Amino acid sequence: MDHHVHGALKDDVSQSVFETLITESDRAIPAWMSQFDSQVGFAIRRWCAPVLGLPRHAAAAEYMKARASLGTDEVNRRLLSGAGVGHFLVETGYRGDEILNPEQMGQSAGQRASEVVRLEAVAESIVESGVTAKSFPERYVQALANATTHAVGVKSIIAYRWGFDFEPARPAKVAVIEAARNWLEAFANGGPLKVEDPVLLRFFLWAGVDRGLPIQLHTGYGDPDLRLDRCNPLLLTPWIKLIEPASVDIMLLHCYPYHREAGYLAQVFPHVYFDVGLGVNYTGVQSEQILAESLELTPFSKLLFSSDAWGPAELHYLGSALWRQGMTNVLQRWVDAGDWSEDDAIRVVNMIATENATRVYKLAGGRS
Amino acid sequence: MDHHVHGALKDDVSQSVFETLITESDRAIPAWMSQFDSQVGFAIRRWCAPVLGLPRHAAAAEYMKARASLGTDEVNRRLLSGAGVGHFLVETGYRGDEILNPEQMGQSAGQRASEVVRLEAVAESIVESGVTAKSFPERYVQALANATTHAVGVKSIIAYRWGFDFEPARPAKVAVIEAARNWLEAFANGGPLKVEDPVLLRFFLWAGVDRGLPIQLHTGYGDPDLRLDRCNPLLLTPWIKLIEPASVDIMLLHCYPYHREAGYLAQVFPHVYFDVGLGVNYTGVQSEQILAESLELTPFSKLLFSSDAWGPAELHYLGSALWRQGMTNVLQRWVDAGDWSEDDAIRVVNMIATENATRVYKLAGGRS
Amino acid sequence: MDHHVHGALKDDVSQSVFETLITESDRAIPAWMSQFDSQVGFAIRRWCAPVLGLPRHAAAAEYMKARASLGTDEVNRRLLSGAGVGHFLVETGYRGDEILNPEQMGQSAGQRASEVVRLEAVAESIVESGVTAKSFPERYVQALANATTHAVGVKSIIAYRWGFDFEPARPAKVAVIEAARNWLEAFANGGPLKVEDPVLLRFFLWAGVDRGLPIQLHTGYGDPDLRLDRCNPLLLTPWIKLIEPASVDIMLLHCYPYHREAGYLAQVFPHVYFDVGLGVNYTGVQSEQILAESLELTPFSKLLFSSDAWGPAELHYLGSALWRQGMTNVLQRWVDAGDWSEDDAIRVVNMIATENATRVYKLAGGRS
After folding, report:
1. Which of these, A184, A316, A364, C35, could form a disulfide with C19 (CB 3.0-4.6 Å)?
2. What would the DSSP string read from start to end of C7-22?
3. Chain B closest CA to A294's CA: distance in Å?
4. pLDDT tens across B257-276, in order?
5. Mutate which of A240, A242, A296, A301 to test chain B, going by most B C-beta atoms within 10 A?
């Protein structure tokens, strides 16, 4: 159960474009370096090369050649089905026209796929299609209800757009209308569609709480749009306490390098969950240590698996392959030392891999 | 030498109550989970089950059954004496009527026990017994002197009540009286006894400095009363510098996940010490990594052992068992690699286990 | 290529002085402890004792005796040449009269040495030799140009003098003159030469940007002059973004315990590099874990080697010995597990050891 993932690429890409998709940097890649020379690059050559018919550690150029000759459809089919994921919860709010939608993801992998709706994308879509400031609050709530009819969760990227150091209380309606007015006027005058006003971002979060589905929050490591130190999940503590009566589950995504902090929140607050998704793919062989560190304070019923893959299906595959390998190594070591029983180790793996997500997202029946 | 510990439970407890005592969460435990499914729960089943006559990894229900059939007195006797702790420094300020007092702890373990006095509890006791705002500062100093006649140290929980981001200077007497007046009035009108005013909390800390005994400070990980990021020990730096001339030792307790930061403070300030107490029990098999990380910047004369156990004697036992196992694994690895000598490893273990505490708290003679 | 290092001691030192030079503390060492009882102390006895003709783990007193009998020149010769460093980039701004200058370093080691100029030292030297506030900005720029004629980089210690939480924009000239006036007046009235005004410190940084050489920044762990939490490199993010158009490379030094954060910045910003220099020496055998953690998010083309040694040539030797041993252990483990190829491991070591520094500092030809 990959509880937070995006679509795989639809189209073939050149090596230079591919390299921009295996880093969180959005800058041009300097001529003196290759993004393949990184943990994620080495992991692709180690894990995905055999899936494409090459030996382990095949050179990057050789890898890209095999990829091009197989074509994106076949690469997607091999890597998505090879990931061994039975159910993808696909978040659709980012550059959706370049990637497979949930239905296509399910088809390519031969498995189930459900949708997670990005709170900010719903707002941007009603602004694009036309709305007045005064009607904005109601229109947003309605649009969110419509967009999530079949969704299993919602997602907030307030980490990118502002940070977690926001005023936690539900904003007053008058303040929301005022902020909407500023945004709409700026947009009408050629300003960006991208919503960055903290009052609006908080309003979306609270609308998510009212909607009642689990709320995924991008946490920690991500692209340079964010200020990493303002994405420390501990900054969410006041808001986490405020929404506690609503019994809505909070899913902290990735969390690196704040996964120990996330484990603390997952222990002390019944409605807080987390994963180390993106931090697994991008640390490659070092993800074994990250996974071990994610198994410290948290009750095992509060940890989930995700890949956060977007674009190259290598990331969908790797998220799963590295997680399986890392968990196997860590738990086997503990079992061999006599510190955990083998039965417990298997039970914990099943909780993190499928059972916790099945319960939180109210999905039918474990593995498909 | 367990330099920071609380009493063991006096009475039998059900499994549901027991589970609330093996987490720092103070929330009700949801029906879909068991706190036994956590590192500390697995560690109890692995380490304590054999002490109660069960096989390693016995199921939680089986464990609780054996515990009930032996009875709390026998469970305490086995686990407290089995911990192999020669001297407990017992902090008495939290829910003292449910747990053994220092004398009873010593009797149950067959070992020595001394007292550590909580600074805030002294204040709350004089407010309960009646005091005027004007006389509060003198009364507090007197009460602290009385309470610590036989104590070996004091403890501050300013981390819980405010955070380490406090104004470091000694507060003016007039400000203390004013803050005491507000507290007393609120308490008279049905407000809480619990002291949370930062001026008063600082006043207690400075009174502790004047008293001259080592000052233990809860640091880092703890229950959701605290804001974890405001318990980063680096926030104490200005206060640590201010009190340096007083030559009073500062004992940073637990520190997880800020134990590397604590190691830095212990290296650069002669009067700063630390332990990773609570972080050992609650990370179970992962405590080996925490212990290794605690052995980075600190001089070995600045690190101590504690369990921070409160309540179930399993925590008293585990604190010791996990520390012994973790230290053995880490140091043996370094000795086997030729990086440390075996003599040095044994010497460092003795420093951390008993010698440093014996010196700082001016206790007679090492192991009893 | 040790891209950030200082000179080795010129003169013989007693054990008590030596111990003050193997800690970042500037406090007197209490009688009840020895700085040899620390990771760096154990590493000296393990790694340097054989270089001085003693067995591994020789006692500290024995070690100091051998050191005294060989004399500082011979100790320097053995340890500096034994470090196997082909090129030292020597930063000269700190207590330069007690240590070898770059030329002497090169001679003692039998290798190349180049100079890195401390931005703040240039300012202090022109204040010492006399300058008016009004002419200060131009005089500084001229003095920096003169001081760096043959330099390969500059260094900022704004971390020590203020912290990274500074206003990122280039300060207005009028503000610089005003700040210089205050500094000069205070200095004329017996105040310290040491510059601590944040406007001036920012001015030096921006002058460094204009100068165009790579800018080294002390980051993270250091002596108690700094507030460690204000040296988290993430606090530099706004400034890093502001200077991006200048195409000047930023070298984050040491970074412990924020090396994961540094790895993030190195991934997302093309002009950010880092090392874990000082954090290797002072964590001894634990540096293996630090090195592994430094190999997470960063592209391998963005990581460098440094020792940050100052004074005892043991630190120059250890920086190299620990790095070689730690990298060997970490990469061999990954190769043995089949996760990295041996060719890749060797290639990455060469990038970090020499190629990245050679490219960034525009040095001729790799190993000398």
Report:
1. C35
2. PBBSS---HHHHHHTS
3. 10
4. 999 999 999 999 999 999 99
5. A296
Q: Minimal Cα–Cα distance from A66 to chain B, Å? A: 41
Strand order in the sheet with C153-156: C2-5, C87-91, C112-118, C153-156, C215-219, C250-254, C272-274
B23 vs A: CB within 8 A? yes
Could you give the domains of chain C?
Answer: 2-10+84-365 (3.20.20.140)
Q: From the list B37, B223, B256, which residue is nearest A300 (CB)?
A: B37
Residue A136, φ and ψ in degrees, nearest 5: -55, -50
CA distance C164 to C252: 12
**B298 to chain C, closest Cα gap in Å:** 7
pTM: 0.97
Is C292 close to A286, i.e. CB distance below 8 A?
A: yes
Q: How far, in Å, CA of B198 to CA of B167, rounded? A: 8
**Partner residue opposite C339 with nearest CB, options A37, A46, A282:** A46
Specify the residue for token string 């410290």: A296
What torsion, rounded to 10 degrees, do the Cα atoms A223, A225, A228, A230 define? -150
Rounded Cα distance, A192 and B18, in Å: 55
Question: Hey, are the CB atoms on C229 and B241 less than 8 Å from each other?
Answer: no
Whether B223 contacts B25, CB under 8 Å: yes
Q: Return the structure tokens found at B345.
A: 């490893």
Per-residue pLDDT of chain B (368 residues; tens, 9 = 90+): 999 999 999 999 999 999 999 999 999 999 999 999 999 999 999 999 999 999 999 999 999 999 999 999 999 999 999 999 999 999 988 888 889 999 999 999 999 999 999 999 999 999 999 999 999 999 999 999 999 999 999 999 999 999 999 999 999 999 999 999 999 999 999 999 999 999 999 999 999 999 999 999 999 999 999 999 999 999 999 999 999 999 999 999 999 999 999 999 999 999 999 999 999 999 999 999 999 999 999 999 999 999 999 999 999 999 999 999 999 999 999 999 999 999 999 999 999 999 999 999 999 753 33
Give the residue on A whose Cα is nearest the Cα of C331: A285
Interface ipTM above 0.95: yes
Across the interface, whether the CB atoms of B42 and A337 are under 8 A apart is answered no
- Cβ–Cβ gap B339/C285 under 8 Å: yes
Spatial contact of B115 and B92, defined as CB atoms under 8 Å apart? yes
User: What distance in Å separates the CA atoms of residue C167 and residue A324, rounded to the nearest whole number?
Assistant: 45
Return the residue of B nearest to C286 by Cα.
B296
Distance between B90 CA and the closest CA of chain A, angstroms: 25
Identify which of C269, C299, C337 has the shortest CB distance to residue A38.
Answer: C299
Decide if B224 and A232 are in contact by the 8 Å CB cutoff: no
Would you say B123 and B164 are in contact if contact means Cβ atoms under 8 Å apart?
Answer: no
Contact B305, B323 (CB under 8 A): yes
pLDDT by residue (tens digit) across C6-26?
A: 999 999 999 999 999 999 999
